[in-house]
Amino acid sequence: MLDGVFKTADSEDGGTLLPLDMMSLLKTLFPLPRSLTGDGVRATLQALKKHIPLDIHEVATGTKVFDWDVPREWNIRGATIKTLDGRVLVDFADSNLHVVGYSVPVRGTFTREQLAAHIHTLPDQPDAIPYRTSYYAENWGFCLPHSLWQTMQDEAYEVEIDSELADGALTYGEFLIPGETEQEILISVHICHPSLANDNLSGITVATALVRHFLAQPKPRFGIRFLFLPATIGAITWLAQNEDHLDRIVHGLVLTCIGDDGPFHYKKTVNGAVVDLATEHVLRHSGHAFETLEFSPYGYDERQYGSPGIALPVGCLMRAIHGTFPEYHTSLDNCDFVTSEALGQSFRLLVDLIDLLQRNVTYRRVDGRGEPQLGRRGLYRAIAGQKEAGGASQMDLLWILNQCDGNRSLLDIAERAKAPFSRIRAAAELCLNAELITEVRP
Amino acid sequence: MLDGVFKTADSEDGGTLLPLDMMSLLKTLFPLPRSLTGDGVRATLQALKKHIPLDIHEVATGTKVFDWDVPREWNIRGATIKTLDGRVLVDFADSNLHVVGYSVPVRGTFTREQLAAHIHTLPDQPDAIPYRTSYYAENWGFCLPHSLWQTMQDEAYEVEIDSELADGALTYGEFLIPGETEQEILISVHICHPSLANDNLSGITVATALVRHFLAQPKPRFGIRFLFLPATIGAITWLAQNEDHLDRIVHGLVLTCIGDDGPFHYKKTVNGAVVDLATEHVLRHSGHAFETLEFSPYGYDERQYGSPGIALPVGCLMRAIHGTFPEYHTSLDNCDFVTSEALGQSFRLLVDLIDLLQRNVTYRRVDGRGEPQLGRRGLYRAIAGQKEAGGASQMDLLWILNQCDGNRSLLDIAERAKAPFSRIRAAAELCLNAELITEVRP
Amino acid sequence: MLDGVFKTADSEDGGTLLPLDMMSLLKTLFPLPRSLTGDGVRATLQALKKHIPLDIHEVATGTKVFDWDVPREWNIRGATIKTLDGRVLVDFADSNLHVVGYSVPVRGTFTREQLAAHIHTLPDQPDAIPYRTSYYAENWGFCLPHSLWQTMQDEAYEVEIDSELADGALTYGEFLIPGETEQEILISVHICHPSLANDNLSGITVATALVRHFLAQPKPRFGIRFLFLPATIGAITWLAQNEDHLDRIVHGLVLTCIGDDGPFHYKKTVNGAVVDLATEHVLRHSGHAFETLEFSPYGYDERQYGSPGIALPVGCLMRAIHGTFPEYHTSLDNCDFVTSEALGQSFRLLVDLIDLLQRNVTYRRVDGRGEPQLGRRGLYRAIAGQKEAGGASQMDLLWILNQCDGNRSLLDIAERAKAPFSRIRAAAELCLNAELITEVRP
Where is the signal peptide (chains A, B, C) (predicted)? Predict the structure, then answer.
């Protein structure tokens, strides 16, 4: 527990760390006009700051970050398509998906044909608004339901996008729960999508809930660093600005699309890592359906964390897989697509996973040759009293006593014993209390 | 052949090394009142000494052995439950399973209710006597058929256990057939079970037959060390007393429950070892049904040999798996449960396996680049004359000539060639005689 | 392109390097009386020299090559079996399979019974002439159709083999297409079989076509060394004479029986090598049926290249597997058994494979941390313009940018991406041109 760090007067809950109502937060964030940069991102981070402490970084346009330059900042005040007699047909105020992200300002009368080149619809999902951006090519456009576009048969329309693309900053949020060591677990979510709930308000709200949860726990072994970043350029910016300390990251996860009620998907790290084994272990023992995916260089920021010269051990946890579900990048990815129960499952799974990573210690038998005599240490009794779920069994104790050779971690032993980590951990606690094992520090 | 080592006047067979009648030995040993310590163990080792040489060690009560102390010695002269009018209902003389091992002395009249707390039966196997011990908690008890206990409805009974739990010694037997090198193969059996035939008189008699067999053979490459020990504390005692020389053990096997006619089961060593590959090879080519089991820390003394800081390459060969067959630890594990044929199969398999381990040499081609010319060395003829089983084929010879690179052992080559070791070994002999290969010593 | 190396006046095609008509070459070579040594081999190599440059080596009888001595040279002018009244029943002029290879000279009248000991037929294939040799035991014999032998019921026959077994030389052909480095790819074919088309005129003609193809290409990274050798003794001779430079061979293939229209078979190198992975990759993406075979020490010269002390990374590519097809080592393995289409497929597959081995470079991202910005380099457009087969896709580019860490070769990346090498190579070219990656030399 970090005293004084987060008991501020403006906390919605008065400075206590009650469990976060994730669904309520998600709905609050939903209408904010997020993009790669700009005031929508700032408003989002300020909204999070009511629940968790957060360092907000502003990185100036043009700053060199690895191979990239921080782009100009985009802001938008409004946008409409009107009939020539002034009837509003499309209004950014109704949905921030209506305007192609990073659209340059435009105002004027366009023939339907001229306008058509700037209209994006989904003929196969005629009632859905698509989500489109044009970050790196100057352009403008509107996204609207195909059904609406089909009704728009006037010769010409009045078009206005009241936006601004100008030097400014890229904004991201960061918070570190300090650990006993300099090593860190990284949790990274992207914050650049506007009104899309699963992709990625689900990741943002679950990460926020994790910050609150772990702030209320005793100081962990590894620090836990949370990043709330615009995708790609945000991760690259953070990597470039923290290049000297990247070796502190010993485990990491990108969270995306974890609010739907489908099975979990875990995409492995680029070179294999303990977090892969740990996540599979937790998923396997969670009772939830899941599938493990091989690493590929297409996806979210695990690409950046796993690029050559970086190659951090960062996997990606999702439920629905981006690009493959019908609601993806459309107005159908709304607050109804995400469920409170699914957010809760994802949150609890991540708590278990982070706990496992924190507690995955390597032990060595103290003067350990042959099995120790358990009877005179009262360990039989201790075990008998622990038969409830999560407690160690006699067999778990034998695994610990046999396998703690100073090389195998508790997770390695749990996998070999085909037992949940929690039980093996409980057996290790008993042995630790009996001074039969001792921690081995790398 | 060890001249003079074992041609003593008191040998039952007059000092020759005729094959042992294992079934007869097993029946001789069956009634002896073995326990963790005491005169039943001594009588057992003396009975073996009529067939094989044996060093009998006595380790005093209280001796510190790793984490343990050698326990007090237990002896029992008799035990009965009588009706108050003197009728004997349960008598240790009928079965040494009737008394819980390490029962403290008791004598007196007990109500049925008082007695019931000390009675062990098997309601699901009402005619079987269970086997129970209480080594490390002072207690006493009787084991009897559930059917008998149900007929015992008197108000009270006369109970007597004429036992003694006192400072003394732990007794174990050991014999080394010396080899040409200091390295050793370990064969370990437990001797602490009273009248149970498969678990583990089968192991004891087969180990005894192996001693006789290998004593009659030329001096082997590796010494073969045989241990006849009380389980757990015996192995820990031996390990503690031989700690400085454990690196001599290059292969090892615990033998248990190998007298029933079920399929073989081989439980692998804790960290993987050549003996795992060798045992699977011999089993696969034996024609017997078998299954390989992963290591687990529950079982017999492979646990101790495989504990951290020890980690010897010792697997466990069994047929029925302890704890899983209905006769296990009951009076049904008697001389009828074990068959002479099964003991013979186990013996022959172990002879083959130990021979393989002894002969699993690594060779290198002498000036070997390209295939040698076989014709001028008469090797074609040699092969033609060897087509009987066990002899080398043309193909085996090619495997030897191609694969003897100074790194691969004959077993490695046999596995790659998918040929039985005996054939690959025969091909190696031909090449050795033709001076085409030479032994590589580590 | 090697200017001046192979534009000689006596080239059939006047010194240009038009694609070789492999079937025509094969038919030209078919009747030549090849054996382990002798003028048939010389005539074969001279015939090849009309199409490709070739160094022809003569190694004197008795030369010590590793464990072997170069054998005496065998030449044959003719051989017949006649009836006593002079009617020719069997004539070497009709088929050079009629005489057992290395038959000593013989002339005289033999009873049918005497002759029978020297007659080889195939009762199960009564119209086929078998192929037999007796290289290392002095003997003589005739091979004829079983149906013919059954009609030969005279009491005696006139027999003549006009051969000569005398000191001379072993002859082989060799040609190196030089590369930019000293490292080489080895292509080896055996040339000791007389009128057998698939085994191995197919290998000889495809190898010849490969020489012509690669001579017409720009200088490759690795040299390509072609060997046309008598089997076993030829390979051993070449290895013995080039022992000091064997480490130049970084990849190698023995070609045999690659002219039939069956599925491809690739037999792996003795210790595993990149050529195994490369060949499987090319076969998998070729659309041809294929199977991969484990290394075994029975076969062609991959045995010699893979023998202890040599252990070169040389696999064997075949279609029909020697020893397993009905036409094998009989007169049925004739020019009809081989098809022009199959030769062409084998040729093109080998071109792809050798190209892959040449181009399987390892790259490193230049200052590569995080993904580079593709847009400003016009790489999106470049990709869009490359959607035809063989061109790189957006995904291939991401794989290259993510995986080029200085350790993984393009083949490793192609395998991980499950993409054909050509596409991954195309993506690498784009990145190389954009100076995003740089070659890593070992």
Answer: none
CATH number belonging to the domain at B74-166, selected among 3.50.30.90, 3.40.50.150, 2.40.50.140, 3.40.50.1820: 3.50.30.90
Tell me whether residue C22 is exposed, middle or buried, using C-beta atoms within 10 angstroms of its C-beta: 0 to 12, 13 to 18, 19 or more: buried
Measured CA to CA, the distance from residue A235 to residue A239 in angstroms comes to 6
Per-residue pLDDT at B385 exceeds 50: no
Mean pLDDT of C145-150: 98
Residues of chain C in contact with residue B393, where contact means CB-CB under 8 angstroms, are none
For the segment C207-219, the average pLDDT, to the nearest whole number, is 96
Across the interface, whether the CB atoms of A370 and B68 are under 8 A apart is answered yes
Chain A residues within an 8 Å CB radius of B298: 395, 398
Report whether A63 contacts A139 (CB < 8 A).
no
Residue whose C-alpha is closest to residue B354's, from B423, B212, B245, B253: B253
Q: Tell me the CB-side half-sphere exposure of residue A302, using CA atoms within 13 A.
A: 29
CA distance A15 to A107: 47
Alpha-carbon dihedral angle through residues B210, B216, B219, B221, given to the nearest 10 degrees: -30
What's domain A361-439's architecture?
Orthogonal Bundle (1.10)
Please, which pLDDT band fits residue B18 given cuts at 50, 70 and 90? low
Condensed to tens digits (0 to 9), the pLDDT of residues A147-165 reads: 999 999 999 999 999 999 9
Output the pLDDT for position B362. Answer: 97
Provide the pLDDT for residue A1: 37
CATH topology of domain C22-70+169-358: Aminopeptidase (3.40.630)
Confidence of residue B161 (pLDDT cuts 50, 70, 90): very high
Q: Which residue has the tokens 């510190």?
A: B64
Which DSSP string do the residues of B265-276 spell out, in sequence order? EEEPPSS--HHH
Cβ-contact B210, B20 below 8 angstroms = no
Residue C308 has its nearest CB partner, among B373, B395, B402, at B402
Q: Which fold has domain C73-166?
A: Glucose Oxidase; domain 1 (3.50.30)
The residue count of chain C comes to 442
Q: Do A370 and B270 touch (CB under 8 A)?
A: no
> Inter-chain contact C398–A66, Cβ cutoff 8 Å?
no
Helix, strand and coil percent figures for chain A, each rounded to 5 = 30, 25, 45
Tokens representing residue A157 in the block:
């329309």
ipTM score of complex? 0.88
Q: Are A196 and A79 in contact (CB under 8 A)?
A: no
Q: What is the CATH architecture of C362-439?
A: Orthogonal Bundle (1.10)
**Arithmetic mean of pLDDT, C218-229:** 98
Residues on A contacting C at a C-beta cutoff of 8 Å: 65-68, 136-137, 232, 235-236, 239-240, 243, 270, 296-298, 303-304, 306-311
Average pLDDT, chain C: 92
| Token pair recorded at residue C425 | 């190579």
Considering CB atoms only, which of C368, C373, C417 is closest to A307?
C368
Domains in chain A: boundaries: 22-70+169-358, 74-166, 361-439
Query: C272, C255, C375, C273: which is closest to C320 by C-alpha?
Result: C255
Measured between beta carbons, the chain A residues lying within 8 angstroms of C438 are: none
Is B77 in contact with B96 (CB distance < 8 Å)?
Answer: no
Is-contact A349 A264, C-beta < 8 A? yes
Q: How far is C410 from chain A (nearest CA, A)?
A: 15
Please return the burial class of C86, using the count of CB atoms within 10 Å of its CB with bins 0-12, 13-18 and 19+.
exposed
Decide if C73-166 and C362-439 have a common fold.
no
Any alpha helices (H) in B248-320, and if so which ranges?
274-284, 302-305
- C428 three-class SS: helix
